[in-house]
Amino acid sequence: MQNENKHMVEECYDALEWVIIQFKKVLSGEVAGNVQESLSYAESILRNR
Description:
- There is one protein chain.
- By secondary structure, the protein is mainly α.
- It has one domain.
- It is built from two helices and no strands.
- Helix 1 runs antiparallel to helix 2.
């Protein structure tokens, strides 16, 4: 169970890191990655906690 929780926390951090990177890209005028797909992925991680 502890390994499963650790993996979930790592996935949440990865999703949050990606969102931060994409916001920084948008704010600097760059084109962000596939925002909709990645936000859906991040939301699914959070909902399945």
